[in-house]
Amino acid sequence: GNVRMSADRSLLVKTTNSFLNIAAGQATTVVKAAAGTLHSIILNSAATATNTTVIYDNASGAGTVIGRPAVTTATIPVTLFYNLSFANGLTIITATANGGDMTVVYS
After folding, report:
1. What is the DSSP string of the chain?
2. What is the pLDDT of residues 57-80, one digit of tens each?
3. Average pLDDT across the chain, whole number
């Protein structure tokens, strides 16, 4: 199982998260093509001022919008915590101008 008792009687929880780095630039990135959980997005560098970043619950760049993080005005580095489930996949689009470098943590 994922939960165990340590020697000092505290609980240890093993997680099996994955991560994907999305390099700075314009891209449509399918992070996962099935249901899962978006844990967090770490913004490693700022996007250019006119960039638009959109996170979708889908395996394409359409459908239900999970969020539109303000990557152009964020203080870098910063971690955005979501901890939410997605049903159809996870796609991130950085458009209009260069998006910032980011790391997506999901399962």
Report:
1. --EEE-TTS-EEE----EEEEE-SEEEEEEEESSSEEEEEEEE-SPPPTT-EEEEEESSSS-SEEEE---TTTPPSSEEEEEEEEESS-EEEEEEEEEEPPEEEEE-
2. 999 989 999 999 988 887 889 999
3. 88
